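Continued from yesterday's entry.
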Amino acid sequence: MLPLCQAFITDVSEPSQLAANLGTFQGLSAGGAFVFAFPVGGILGSKFGPRLPLYIASGLQLLNALIILFFTPESNTNKNDKLDLRETNPISGLKRLFGNAPILRTAALAYFLISLARCSLDAQFTNYANIRFGWSQAQSGPVLVLVGLMLAIAPRLFIKYFGLQKAILTGILFFAAGLSGAGLAPTPPSFVFSIFIVSIGCMSIPAVCSVMANLAQPGERGQLLGAVGGLTELTGAIGSTMYASLLAKFTSDGATFNGNLPGGHFIVGSMLLLLAWGIAMAGFADNKHPALSGDVIVEDIDI
């Protein structure tokens, strides 16, 4: 659903408002999950077992499907668009992202690294907090609420202030600093503050998605963001396994680095972000493009 909703938002947003609107959606989706779904699911699961939260989630998705079917209008008003089954496979989408357009390739590669770095937090937050500070799921809940609120607030607040290009570059640096701080934090308060910095840095995600969407033809933006969704799933598949292995290597009994750097997987994520910053900085400098301003939809680029 994530890339579909992003495509819908892109279709109905003015280019100058796209990044802020995608940021709001990030807050409603990811932020809503942190604020409501994780705590409620944890409480219900602890009281009634793991099946009840799954049944409730299934019911919500059924309601979601009915709302889409009966009340949601079509966002792409071009009636001549036809589905090309040859373009529906993920390999084709990745070819579009990493094809012949240098600015799109830069944005896609930066997004890949940012998304892969974010998995260090998404996939292992609860496990790390339990291992490092002895937190239970209930104790992790308030921190997740903080993250959710900042995900809802930060993009709309800071992207408008910085502009797209600076929001990407500044956000990546905030993100990297926050992950480094989380990996090195010796106490729970310093860890919470680092996660707060991470949530500000997440403004880079809707900003770079907005740049990629503005590079597509109006009728192709949904297809492009679908490819971005495929890239997100790819980083999730890689990151969940990679960071679990790193967490075990840095924390488990008898591990090579046990006790020396328990948050080492966060440091790895931070290094990926610094690489993303270098690629974005060089790519944006070499390819000055109107899409980086967010003021226009670019229609003269072959992707």
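--- second protein ---
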Amino acid sequence: MNTTETTLKMVFDRWYALLKNFDTTLNALTDEQLQHEIAPGKNRGIYLLGHMIAVHDDMLRLLDLGEKMYPELFEPFIKEADKAVSELPSATTLRAYWAKQNEVLKQKFDSVPADEWFQKHTAVTAEDFAKEPHRNKLNIIITRTSHLAYHHGQFVLIN
């Protein structure tokens, strides 16, 4: 295994391990529990789940892998704070979106040639990328892995 393959394996092993841990925690929660706040006055589980879907949805665009699957989730889960929107999709709907999105992301990630992970993502200009080559597609996976770990930590506080 060369350095590129090793690097990709390390990053994606962590990504998929965190997704598995998040799914285990999510599947242990009832839809009613997803209505609970992680702490008094903080986000509810349902909001965090929708937020995760919306953030991961944007990865398709950033990685130049297609259009968002659920663009309607941007407004309530990225632009607005929890409880600022009166109607959210049901927990059942969000669970289905989460599962489907993770299947699609895996299929798309598996189709990306190894060297393409080190190319620029769509939110960086060619000029900026020439100066900062670390602003590549793999870095999107790394930052989203950290984001997933952060919110998984919040999810375990739901009871």
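The helical segments are 3-28, 45-62, 74-79, 91-110, 126-131, 137-155. The chain has one domain: 3-155. Will compare against the first tomorrow.
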